[in-house]
Amino acid sequence: MKRGRSPRARALPRLIAVAVGLASTLLIPAAAMAASNKVRITNLTDVAFGSLANLSVDAVRSQSVCLYADTNTNGYSITATGTGPSGAFQLTSGAAAMDYEVQWSSSAGQSGGASLAPNMPLTGQVSPATHQTCANGPATSASLILLLRSSALSSARAGTYNGTLTLIVGPE
Amino acid sequence: MNARLLKFTAGCAGALLASGTALGATQGTLGATSTGSVSINASVPNRVQIGGLSDVSFTNQDPATAAANAQNVCVWSNTSTKGYNVTASGSGAGSAFTLASGASTVPYSVEWSGSSGQSSGSALTSGSALTGLTSTATNANCASGPASSASLIVRISSANLQTMQAATSYTGTLTLVVAPE
Questions:
Q1: A104 contacts A67 by C-beta, under 8 angstroms
Q2: In CATH, what number does A38-171 get?
Q3: pTM for the whole thing?
């Protein structure tokens, strides 16, 4: 004669199912809150130094940009590349070239920051942005600063110089 | 029909204005990395600079021998040809090249060379530009590249030295104006 399972044994699968269900319920919100490790840079504007009448002083242009980093620490790195040889920060006017410098600050509204080297990531940056385009929260979250040193200006040939600076952001 | 056209035109203008100040800038998208770029432009106008000038001093000159003083100066021009002209003027009557001691005056002459290290050059006339010069300077104050790029030569002829009174100081100022070409 086959003996039936005890009531406790019959209840065990139900208990396991309930426990799994509870665990799922608890884990799902946690997964939804995890950082996506995605970044975004926006609010960039072209840099116009204009006609530089005084070549004996540095020319500086800074702008506040939106840098969003959806990581656990809101951390990011930034890499800049110019259009000179090997990505050098260089403007050109025909065959003539003029070097410039690039600085970055992880705070908005700055006129100075950490110097960037071409193709070399500046790490350890943290963004206060809470929206990927800064549509809410801080309107901007970092500063991009470009400098034309007087030493470069006073060696430059007269003319109109152009170049492009590319910024690549990665999560940290 | 005309009114409709006007309205459409106004709409386009508004859209252009609203779309931005950043015609060449590109914005990043959300992703594992994000890339943006900005265009940069700067304009450098024609500029020249003269520097490295030293005062000229003739002391205890033998009137029998013409006096000459040559010095190397830095002239920088950022034009495409690095061209410039130079105009000299003295402190005498009508900007003449003269030294004075009270009412007594003595003429001197000025020469310019577009190369450094020269002991003679093209004669300058007060107020008249010597044109067609080219600079070898690569930095405005010759801090890098050639240390000097032109020569200034000042002379007092023996005949004029003989008109000067002994143990008397004659002074004057020579002004040089450089312009880009």
A1: no
A2: 2.60.40.1090
A3: 0.77
Q: How far is CA B151 from the centre of its chain?
A: 14
Q: Could you report the per-residue pLDDT of B108-128, keeping only the tens digit for each?
A: 999 999 999 999 999 999 999
Rounded to whole angstroms, the Cα distance separating A159 from A167 reads: 26
Q: Would the CB atoms of A40 and B41 count as touching at under 8 Å?
A: no
DSSP bridge pairs for A81: A166
Interface of A with B in 10-69 (CB under 8 A): 37-53, 55-56, 59, 65, 68
Q: List alpha helices for chain B, DSSP H.
A: 2-19, 158-161
Within 8 A of B80 by CB-CB distance, chain A residues are: 157-159
For residue A72 the two structure tokens come to 């656990």
Its CATH architecture, for the domain B48-180, is Sandwich (2.60)
How high is the ipTM of this complex?
0.82
Instruction: Give the residue extent of every domain in chain B.
Output: 48-180
The pair of structure tokens assigned to A160 is 């109109």
